[in-house]
Amino acid sequence: xxxxxxxxxxxxxxxxxxxxxxxxxxxxxxxxxxxxxxxxxxxxxxxxxxxxxxxxxxxxxxxxxxxxxxxxxxxxxxxxxxxxxxxxxxxxxxxxxxxxxxxxxxxxxxxxxxxxxxxxxxxxxxxxxxxxxxxxxxxxxxxxxxxxxxxxxxxxxxxxxxxxxxxxxxxxxxxxxxxxxxxxxxxxxxxxxxxxxxxxxxxxxxxxxxxxxxxxxxxxxxxxxxxxxxxxxxxxxxxxxxxxxxxxxxxxxxxxxxxxxxxxxxxxxxxxxxxxxxxxxxxxxxxxxxxxxxxxxxxxxxxxxxxxxxxxxxxxxxxxxxxxxxxxxxxxxxxxxxxxxxxxxxxxxxxxxxxxxxxxxxxxxxxxxxxxxxxxxxxxxxxxxxxxxxxxxxxxxxxxxxxxxxxxxxxxxxxxxxxxxxxxxxxxxxxxxxxxxxxxxxxxxxxxxxxxxxxxxxxxxxxxxxxxxxxxxxxxxxxxxxxxxxxxxxxxxxxxxxxxxxxxxxxxxxxxxxxxxxxxxxxxxxxxxxxxxxxxxxxxxxxxxxxxxxxx
Length: 552
Description:
With 552 residues, the protein is of the alpha+beta class. The protein folds into two domains: 144 residues, Uridine Diphospho-n-acetylenolpyruvylglucosamine Reductase, domain 2 (2-Layer Sandwich), CATH 3.30.43; 313 residues, CATH 1.10.630.10. 47% of the residues lie in helices and 11% in strands. The chain contains 22 helices and 14 strands. The strands form five sheets. It has a five-stranded mixed β-sheet. The chain has a three-stranded antiparallel β-sheet with strand order 4-14-13. It has a two-stranded antiparallel sheet with strand order 6-7. The chain is globular and about 70 Å long. The protein starts with a helix and ends with a strand.
């Protein structure tokens, strides 16, 4: 027994010695190297507990650029928001390998999303899909025509999803209690799935189809963050079983029976209709279904939480919608005929929502400011790039740093989002922060809508596009980095925000939704973030909160 213990201790000591012997050494010209007590793991524990606090502590010790080890990856951390444009323009930094590895971990291989030939492999005919699939996604989710079509479809899908979620539970004058995060998950899944993948005409079949896939999807989604953390799916049997069930379900969808299939899914199915590509196509469908909800669900949760907690924000959004509808040339139907959705006298037909188009939604600058403010407060994106060559990167301050091939650069979005020089009082929810009036100082981070008359509010207000750091302008796309930055920002961000806005407008227009207070009548405070999803984008809540919903 003693010899066995001795042998184990010897092996452990040998492993530790090897790890220390081969740990990274700083070379001339490289950023300061942070030393860690545990090899390979590095800063993972400290960063995971308090990412912003840890990075700022390292910034005070080492400056705006430093190197850490994060779960085996060498990360060059950039802390200055002005360096984002430098990272974006660096040609030796690439994201395709990161995305390919991410998709592989989420849905397995083979797939053809950013899947060109790996190092040492020759290009095959099938590798053409590696470039075609991202182009299809970008074209169908970024173009003005596809977005307008999706917005129009969203006006039909959202009321049906709300009817499905509330059904007979929410009657006029009879409030029903719901858990807000669970409600958001149900609504976003329903809207996303039926918006992109098409829907079934029969209400009974629609309900059965949506609920069946919903159960499997969230069994898979529950621990999907562990896959990104490089936990093999074989160690997650429930996740693996759910993923296999999803593959089977998606591969057996009968597209001929589904109406209003989006151009994205239609093109994706059409690009590889042959049987030998069925497995790849199913993986493409699943990663789209997953990525379309990963940020949208928590985004809706936090938007609803902060709007419901801020009566001024809620009133301003409602007033803005009323004025915009009155001044719009769009005809808003008032009949109760609702294709594909049962209605009754106790459930609103939501004809305003059904008639909204993208042009009208784009005019709602107060609602847009609320959503942007939530993105700023809750976005936690880890913007990573992989160095494909040895190179030198010059920062905004004029310093130059050597980056080795195979290293990663990292910019943590809250460095910008919580910078008090860019955003005054960054820890506060200020619903009109992203609004400016003609003649307003462009460097101002705040505006006051409370003293503005209703006509002025809708005609004079404009989205704020100018932010500054050390006297240098930061573009609107780099001021809010929840969906990434540069050309590789999430292509689905536009339709995700449209979904969130449509659901918010539906709930505050047709329902009385309130945060459930405690026994003392005090409304809930913002729950903590669930740090298991750190780096994905919008952070989900660690705990749920109750809301009461009643039809007006």
